Amino acid sequence: MFALTKRLTLRPSWPEDAPALSRAIGHEAVVRNLSRAPWPYALGDAEAFLALPREPHQARFQIMTRGENRLIGGIELIPLGERTHELGYWLTPDAWGFGYATEAATAVIEMARHALGSERLIGRHMIDNPASGRVLRKLGFVETGFSRLFSVARGGEVECIDLALDLARPCMASGAACAMPIAA
Predict the structure, then answer these.
(1) What backbone phi and psi angles, to 5 degrees, belong to 48?
(2) Planar angle of CA 168, 59, 111, nearest 5 degrees
(3) Extended strands (E) in 17-173
(4) What is the mean pLDDT of residues 7-28?
(5) CA–centroid distance for 162 within its chain
(6) Whole-angstrom Cα distance, residue 58 to residue 148?
(7) Burial class of 32 by CB neighbour count within 10 A (0 to 12, 13 to 18, 19+)
(8) CA separation for the pair 146, 87 (Å, rounded)
(9) Which of 45, 93, 106, 126 has the smallest C-beta neighbourhood within 10 Å, fewest atoms?
(10) What distance in Å separates the CA atoms of residue 80 and residue 91, rounded to the nearest whole number?
């Protein structure tokens, strides 16, 4: 699957992405807010991640800027069970604050709703990462509680705020309808 937004291309990852991936994600400020990424993050870590098996229709994407075609992040839907997925995403620091996470997530939410038949998405953010929480709330997620998540980079459990999005409701991120062109 691929998706195009106004400023981004969401596409599957390829083995040749390893150098760009290790540069984009290889910041302590990024990996400390992820559960599976180690710190420090090296080229071998990117190569190992890109070699992980992936189902043909698994929604795991590199976030690329349109025009300059620069890898600025990653986003995925992790299946949790019948019609439920977890939304996960990250951006490289020089892409923070431009609305890219919201733009990419809006496209992925529409994939979940229309292409995957998802009825519920969950998201979570580490309690000391309020920017991620603002993205989720802007997308319509609502708080459902708290949990703890193991962070490889931090070497321990971290308290998280849990949120959920009911996909039966119409998409109204930023106050506008959210239909996005997607291709399989």
Answers:
(1) -65, -45
(2) 35
(3) 60-65, 71-81, 84-91, 120-126, 142-151, 156-166
(4) 96
(5) 15
(6) 26
(7) middle
(8) 16
(9) 93
(10) 23
Residue 134 has pLDDT above 80, yes or no: yes
Token reading at 135: 């993205």
Among 28-32, 110-114, 134-138, 139-143, the range scoring the smallest mean pLDDT is 110-114
Q: Are 93 and 134 in contact (CB under 8 A)?
A: no
Burial zone of 176 (CB within 10 Å; 0-12 exposed, 13-18 middle, 19+ buried): exposed
What is the chain's mean pLDDT, rounded?
91
At 44, list the tokens: 């071998």
The encoded tokens of residue 52 equal 């992980």
